[in-house]
Amino acid sequence: LRWALGHAPNGRPDDTLVAVVGDRIVASHRRLRVPWVIDGVPRVGVSLYDLGALPAYRQGIGVQLVLRALAGEPVVLAAG
User: Fold this and answer.
1) Which helix (DSSP H) or strand (DSSP E) does residue 2 occupy?
2) pTM
3) Distance between CA atoms of 23 and 25, rounded to whole angstroms?
């Protein structure tokens, strides 16, 4: 987690997404910035991973985090 938050070569502070209800984090999602070469052009895209929510909040909050993780990203790998 320390590497992902502070030492990932292309990471940004907003790559860890959380859903908060009151003063409690109830879900989270991560994206990792990965360098790729697409059609000969170097680019940095995101790979989505580590989506989780507390059982009581598994009614759409995860999809909201995924959509937020995708927003504005030109290149995304969503494996799985």
Assistant:
1) helix 2-2
2) 0.79
3) 7
CA angle 20, 25, 30 (to 5 degrees): 95
Burial 9-36 (b: 16+ CB within 10 A, else e): eebeeebebebeeeeeebbbbbbbbeee
Token duo for residue 50: 């580590």
Strand partners, 76: 46
Considering Cα of 7, then 52, then 33, then 24, what sign does the dihedral take? negative
pLDDT at residue 65 greater than cutoff 90? yes
Distance CA(45)–CA(25), nearest Å, equals: 26
Q: Strands of 76-77's sheet, edge to edge? A: 16-21, 24-38, 41-53, 76-77
